[in-house]
């Protein structure tokens, strides 16, 4: 398809192929490593937090968490109309000298679900999560990304148990079966992998 289209464009002139090929290659590299490019031009670099014994460490130095909980960031970022709240919240946190925010990287089953049903995801919500991560970095905020809820809100444990029950693979209707039912553990491991 692409080739015959280009043939028409170039009238069969072979010289243009290497040029077009090179341009596509540059575009691809730019799109793949655009983030690194920004890094080289002075945006905040945030290393991952590590641990030594009971001490959190960043870049070899002790790190003390001073943060807050805004579980709703990804959810509010899905709709254009409420997206600006994410940046406003992170900016407010940064202004108060906070450096870490705990937020939800899950939303199972319900409204604006990231995981619609086991192993099925909504790309719009993934994009919103990407945006949350990018915004956090812009404001120099590290994130604790929670992957499941012990409570019912945003799905969590209860939703996993219900999925397994509905599909007839659940061993029990008890919410605590999240912790031992092999089918449910499978769902959750699959989610973490994705
Ligand atoms: C971890 O902590 C121990 C005890 O304080 C120290 O001796 C060691 O050098 C530390 N390791 C790193 C990688 O910082
Ligand atoms: C599981 O938890 C939900 C939410 O707290 C509750 O409504 C439901 O009754 C619980 N299921 C069982 C079997 O206890």
From TrEMBL:
TM region(s), chain numbering: 15-38
Annotated InterPro entries: GH (IPR017853), Glyco_hydro_5 (IPR001547), MAN-like (IPR045053)
GO MF annotations in UniProt: mannan endo-1,4-beta-mannosidase activity
Pfam families: GH5_mannosidase
Gene3D superfamilies: Glycosidases (3.20.20.80)
EC supergroup of this enzyme: hydrolase
Keyword Transmembrane: yes
EC assignment: 3.2.1.78
Catalytic activity, as annotated: Random hydrolysis of (1->4)-beta-D-mannosidic linkages in mannans, galactomannans and glucomannans
Keyword Transmembrane helix appears in the UniProt entry: yes
Alphabetic keyword roster: Glycosidase, Hydrolase, Membrane, Transmembrane, Transmembrane helix
Domain Glycoside hydrolase family: 47-166
Family the entry assigns: Belongs to the glycosyl hydrolase 5 (cellulase A) family.
PANTHER family (UniProt xref): MANNAN ENDO-1,4-BETA-MANNOSIDASE 2, PTHR31451
Record's protein name: mannan endo-1,4-beta-mannosidase
């Amino acid at each position: 398809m692409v080739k015959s289209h280009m043939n028409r464009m170039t009238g069969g002139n072979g010289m243009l192929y290497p040029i077009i090929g090179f341009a596509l290659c540059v575009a691809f590299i730019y799109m793949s490593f655009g983030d690194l490019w920004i890094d080289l031009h002075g945006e905040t670099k945030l290393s991952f937090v590590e641990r030594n014994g009971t001490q959190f460490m960043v870049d070899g130095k002790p790190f003390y968490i001073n943060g807050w909980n805004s579980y709703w960031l990804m959810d509010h970022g899905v709709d254009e109309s409420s997206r600006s709240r994410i940046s406003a919240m992170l900016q407010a946190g940064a202004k108060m000298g906070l450096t870490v925010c705990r937020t939800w990287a899950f939303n199972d089953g319900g409204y604006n679900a990231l995981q619609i049903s086991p192993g099925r995801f909504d790309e719009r919500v993934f994009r919103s999560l990407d945006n949350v991560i990018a915004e956090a970095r812009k404001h120099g905020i590290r994130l604790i990304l929670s992957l499941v809820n012990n409570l019912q809100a945003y799905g969590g444990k209860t939703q996993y148990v219900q999925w397994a029950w509905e599909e007839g693979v659940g061993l029990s209707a008890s919410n605590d079966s999240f912790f031992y039912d092999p089918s449910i553990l499978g769902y959750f491991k699959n989610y973490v992998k994705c």
